[in-house]
Write a structure and sequence with these properties.
Blueprint: E1 11-19, H1 24-37, E2 41-47, E3 56-64, E4 77-80, H2 87-90, E5 98-101, H3 103-106, H4 109-112, E6 116-119, H5 122-129, H6 135-147, H7 152-161, H8 167-187, E7 206-209, H9 210-220, E8 225-228, H10 235-243, H11 245-248, E9 251-254, H12 258-270, E10 275-279, H13 281-296, E11 301-307, H14 324-328, E12 338-340, H15 345-362, E13 366-371, H16 372-376, E14 377-381, H17 442-461, E15 467-469, E16 476-481, H18 485-495, E17 500-505, E18 507-509, H19 515-520, E19 524-529, H20 535-544, E20 550-553, H21 562-573
Parallel strand pairs: 1-4, 4-5, 5-6, 8-9, 8-10, 10-11, 11-13, 12-13, 16-17, 16-19, 19-20
Antiparallel strand pairs: 1-3, 2-3, 2-14, 7-14, 12-18, 15-17
Helix pairs in contact: 1-6, 1-7, 5-6, 5-8, 6-8, 7-8, 9-10, 9-15, 12-13, 18-21
């Protein structure tokens, strides 16, 4: 009777929440791995508080018979591992939500949450095994029982996760999971909730996060040097590259501050390294002088900017799309740059490679915009979905008459590095001539600035086109960029409107030349983006002269959900929501 609302469903949303230290990520990793091994699709999104110790964390896991890659509000199963369920979780609970928790731990909160509460004596079982720390394994086992999954995958997972621990740790976790499993299986009378789900014949074993996708894309793009000062939510890319540095031939430096990171990256590129830095908004603000240095010395540097809410420290572990204009107009002076904003894990892998290719084709800084939601989300994918771009060409030796800043028709000068060939490779932060010598010459200044800016024309021709999803003949055009793509795509699919299409951007600068044509074909246009001032809508108007009909914005620190986008687009289409 607890699960009548889930009958006939092929998409299940499970949320785990509890105090930091209870091992929610362990449950998440375990469940995701077993689900994938069962031949199903999984999508997960992590949420955590900005605290050194304490606080409450949560994770959402969607289990489906078909591919899923978007956040939903709906909670089918909620596991409350400790008291103090956060308000943003409570707001998502409905009468159909089944809540599992320990009444002795939750006390009166168990009856205040709403939904249908099912008591699990987590604490008593965990204490019998060895302590409160095992409550997460009890909950995992219980979930496996009600879903109809065996425990073989759990043992394999525990053996890998605790390989450096004593064998008894694995056995205690398995005992906790087995006890929880027996209770869960009894609750559903051995009729698992996933029994009717269609399985893949060929299982997709790869589980990838946004962090992994950017890191792997950097390696595939030829990255040989990475520097960063740790800053949420970008730190994962640094640790990913560091963990693969030796096997992949990457020099990775955790530096004293962001100024050091960008200047080391510029220096490494001057010496021939394929350079990357990873940071967040506040760190990027510190880097802007170094980005400008890269502009004048024409240094190919890739910058991964994982956005979070500002101003200043803002909300260090939350998400937002508030740094688009910050990235575009960063640094003093004028010089060309490209800005990418991947919307899916597959495209993040390809786009990160593209960022390296663009940086090295045009000798200029290139920025990859992600956000906390994107880097901390994960799903299973087939390795065949990943596209490898051609490897970057080798740097040629310089000749005796080499000039680093040769004035060429397309603005791209031949790239040389010191000691590789006969030529002298100059470089200076001041305005300089073709050889890199500093002169205060007004005609020279004009000529060199024109040379640098000519590169932007080539970058425009090679800009990634936006993706049109839906009917080619549309009345309403919904526009989005970056991480909102899968969410808006699923919302529009659910709405099922034959007169509405989605235009999704994964390169936000320079804009593709097709932008204005797409906009002018629509009777109504609406932007969906995660900031308070509709930054991308403003940029589009600046470049095309087309003002959008309205904007659906969110800037609470949380990502849009599919249901929220559905509701607000419905309001917009009915005239109830304007530009805000």
């Amino acid at each position: 009777m607890h699960f009548s609302s889930l009958e006939g469903r092929t998409d299940l949303s499970c949320v785990f929440c509890g105090a930091a230290g209870l091992g929610i990520q362990t449950v998440e990793d375990l469940l995701a791995r077993v689900i994938v091994n069962e031949g199903l699709y999984v999508f997960g999104s992590r949420e955590y508080m900005s605290r050194v110790r304490g606080g409450s964390n949560s994770t959402e896991i969607r289990i489906s018979s078909s591919p899923v890659d978007a956040l939903v509000d709906r909670i089918d199963l909620l596991f409350a591992l400790s008291a103090g369920v956060r308000e943003n979780i409570r707001e998502r609970i409905t009468p159909d939500t089944v809540i599992f928790g320990d009444r002795d731990e939750l006390k009166e909160e168990a009856d205040e949450l709403g939904g249908t509460f099912v008591n699990i004596p987590l604490q008593d079982i965990a204490k019998e095994v060895g302590g409160k720390i095992y409550s997460n394994s009890v909950a995992a086992g219980f979930l496996f029982g009600i879903l109809g999954l065996g425990l073989d995958g759990a043992r394999e997972f525990f053996e890998q996760r605790f390989a450096d621990k004593k064998p008894e740790v694995v056995e205690k976790n398995m005992k906790a999971a087995r006890t929880g499993f027996d209770q869960g299986e009894a609750l559903v009378e051995k009729k698992g909730l996933l029994d009717g789900y269609t399985r893949l014949k060929e299982k997709e074993s790869m589980i990838l996060s946004g962090t992994d996708a950017v890191g792997l894309g950097a390696l595939a793009g030829g990255c040989t040097f990475a520097a960063a000062y740790p800053m949420s939510p970008s730190t994962g890319v640094l640790t990913f590259l560091a963990s693969h540095a030796e096997e992949c031939g990457v020099a990775v430096e955790q530096v004293e501050d962001e100024l050091a990171a960008i200047n080391m990256a510029v220096g490494a590129a001057y010496a021939g390294g394929r350079s990357m830095v990873t940071t967040s908004g506040g760190g990027f603000a510190l880097m802007t002088e170094g980005v400008s240095l890269a502009g004048v010395v024409e240094s190919p540097v890739v910058i991964h900017l994982a956005q979070r809410p500002g101003p200043a420290t803002g909300m260090a572990t939350r998400t937002e799309q508030g740094d688009l204009l910050h990235a575009l107009f960063s640094s003093h002076g004028e010089f060309p740059k490209a800005i990418y904003a991947p919307g899916t894990l597959e495209s993040a892998f390809k786009i990160t490679q593209k960022a390296f290719a663009t940086a090295w084709s045009y000798h200029t800084p290139v920025i990859i915009l992600t956000d906390q939601y994107f880097v901390n989300s994960f799903r299973n994918l087939s390795p065949e979905t990943f596209e490898f771009l051609p490897e970057l060409p080798e740097i040629e030796k310089t000749g005796p008459n080499y000039r680093r800043y040769e004035d060429t028709p397309d603005g791209v000068s031949p790239y040389g590095i010191p000691g590789w060939g006969e030529g002298i490779v100059g470089g200076d932060s001041h305005e300089h001539d073709e050889e890199g010598h500093v002169y205060e010459d007004f005609h020279l200044r004009t000529r060199m600035q024109d040379k640098r800016m000519r590169k932007l024309e080539g970058m425009k021709r090679e800009a990634l086109p936006p993706t049109l999803i839906g009917p080619e003949k549309y009345e309403t055009l919904v526009i989005c960029w970056g991480s909102t793509l899968p969410i808006v795509r699923e919302a529009l699919k659910n709405l099922g409107r034959a007169d509405t299409a989605l235009l999704a951007y994964e390169q936000v600068w320079p804009l593709h030349s097709s932008t204005e044509e797409y906009l002018r074909k629509a009777s109504r246009t609406v932007m969906v983006e995660g900031n308070s001032t509709a930054q991308f809508a403003r940029l589009i108007r600046c470049e095309t002269g087309v003002a959008l009909s309205g904007s659906v914005l969110k800037y609470s620190g949380l990502q849009f959900s599919v249901e929220e986008v559905e509701k607000r687009l419905t309001e917009f289409l009915s005239g109830k929501e304007g530009s805000r």
